[in-house]
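SAMPLE LOG
Freezer: B-3
Tube label: C17
Construct: single chain, 281 aa
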Amino acid sequence: MRIVKTIPELKSFISECKGEGKTIGLVPTMGALHNGHLSLVERARKDNDIVVVSVFVNPTQFNNKEDLRTYPRTEKRDCELLESAGCDVAFIPSVEEIYPEPDTRVFDLGKVAEVMEGKHRPGHFNGVAQIVSKLFAIVEPYRAYFGEKDFQQIAVIRRMVELEGFDLEVVACPIVREADGLALSSRNVRLTEEQRAVAPNIAKTLMESLNFAKSHTVADTVKFVVDKINSYPDLEVEYYEIVNGHDMQAIGDWGDSDYVVGCVTVYCGDVRLIDNIAYKK
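STRUCTURE (predicted):
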């Protein structure tokens, strides 16, 4: 596996590969890799000749400086995991390499970016669009891979691709969970032993809500999930919304869409965890 730190070196390698007719798959990450990330690498490995994984903690998508400061950074281990997963190139640039000057672009991401994470983390999705658009321009991949845990983010990236006219396929891959149901996240390493023991109740409640929803309204189901999660020690729901999976807008009735997803953000102590579940797909 090649470790690349600069944009010119990466572009040169990509140019060589494309000259040989090879297809490129990109997996953008912020490092602190886990099996969820590796499942994206494995999917990219199956679909493409060359797999590029970026490892970059992007400062422009953090609206909370403390969250940026405490975000786990495990570069050596990340490289070992990527090599074992069959990655061809790990792109690990510095902040100065990606942002030699401030990125002042503002994207018209529309209504998919205005709700849920967009509402609670102002500027977050614009930062995501900044870094992902830069990576797409540098790598020019045929396909790019993202995990469905960040469900709303995928809709935002698809909107950005449409706006910028990138010629690539955005591939959404299923959530990977621990044996007890907890969605894999780089932030999970920040949980205390007690918090880690209670955190799986987020997914457990979402699963229970599938059955509850069969005989209850959307509003009742939202209340069920929020009340149940909040009943556990150390868990506090920031929001739970049941939305149209196509445009991220909250629905009022189960018949409002053929694709219905419940999206939740929960504070477990001071660690912010997200998850989602499909009611109709």
